[in-house]
Inverse folding.
């Protein structure tokens, strides 16, 4: 070792006496364990997934609102389209051009909006049919559960035993409405069909016949 290097080494030892480490005042951080790294990666992936799902849901919600809000801002024509989504004439008025002249983006918007309105129409028809059926059932229940039918209600307490008398009751009611009636034993001589189901079907049929006659 040269004289210059020895002097430098001596000067270094004076500045940092034995027993003191040449470290910065900040303590060294220990390396994270593999398990903690996996946990952190899992957390980050979960956060990213939640963000993606929420962002997608929000985008779908915004798109849903866009369909309902009349994207081309022509409310008078849009209101007609909601009632007649299959009308090409209305769609041409809505886009102010022939459907054959639509650009690719316009045609995509047209098909999307039409599909949405057709789905809305289908759901509305289902809801209307459901409500109509509920009204029929309400009418049916009111008729069968009225005080005038206490006799019938007593019969259906034991359908298996009273099926013949119940058929006579139905036959009388059907004839009052001008319809013929086939009894259970005439329809199923072997009695291989549920009597309870038979009575339920005839109750519903009777209510429907009464309802039809009222509408006419």
């Amino acid at each position: 070792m040269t004289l210059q290097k020895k002097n430098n080494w001596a000067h270094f030892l004076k500045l940092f006496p034995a027993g003191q480490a040449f470290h910065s005042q900040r303590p060294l951080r220990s390396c994270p364990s593999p398990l903690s790294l996996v946990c952190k990666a899992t957390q980050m992936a979960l956060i990213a997934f939640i963000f993606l799902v929420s962002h997608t849901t929000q985008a779908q919600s915004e798109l849903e609102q866009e369909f309902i809000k009349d994207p081309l801002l022509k409310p008078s024509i849009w209101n007609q389209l909601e009632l007649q989504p299959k009308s090409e004439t209305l769609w041409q008025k809505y886009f102010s051009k022939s459907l054959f002249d639509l650009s690719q983006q316009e045609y995509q918007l047209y098909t999307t909006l039409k599909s949405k309105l057709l789905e809305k129409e289908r759901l509305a028809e289902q809801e209307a049919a459901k409500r109509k059926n509920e009204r029929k059932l309400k009418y049916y229940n009111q008729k069968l559960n009225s005080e005038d039918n206490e006799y019938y209600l007593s019969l259906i307490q034991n359908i298996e035993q009273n099926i013949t008398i119940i058929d006579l009751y139905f036959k009388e009611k059907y004839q009052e409405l001008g319809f013929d009636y086939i009894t259970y034993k005439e329809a199923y001589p072997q009695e291989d069909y549920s009597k309870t189901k038979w009575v339920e079907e005839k109750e519903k049929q009777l209510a429907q016949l009464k309802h039809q006659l009222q509408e006419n």
Remarks:
- The two ends are 123 Å apart (CA to CA).
